[in-house]
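Data availability (excerpt). The following record was deposited with the supplementary files.
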Amino acid sequence: MAQIELPYFGQINFSQLEQYYTVKVNELKIKVDLNFVDNNINEEEALNVKVFLENILTFNTINKKEILNDFNNEGETQAYINFYLEELTEEELKEIIGYDDEGLTLEEQLLNQLRLVRVGIYPDKKFGINFYSVFDYSIDIDGEACNQVLAVKTNRKGELDCIDWES
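Predicted structure:
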């Protein structure tokens, strides 16, 4: 094995890896990065990366359900949303959520504004991490993603490890 065609990245030589690859996926409006410790990985792991990339949209759907569950169970998501409700002015909130959905609380409206902004994949545990990927979700203020993110960390199958609030 030398080259494998990866979604979003094209051909990558898995026997001569760089430590970091990044690409902006315009159609999804996200950044995706691959992070490696070693300069090579085996074919099975390379194929795992390919399959993972092919399933980003599916994982995003699953993650949004996990975020909602975390919010409903008063986890990190609720703290993240409450932080913005406390920090933003009413005018700033109006630009984000509009206050127009009387069927939802302000918290739920703001939660609905979370969007995926980045997916980082760590096939060989770069930085000594114990998860396979991180999906960063943020809200937009003035058209830009905030630097505070909800980081949904998963295993190689896209199953939830944890949700952290990071900056």
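Summary of structural features: The chain has a mean pLDDT of 93.
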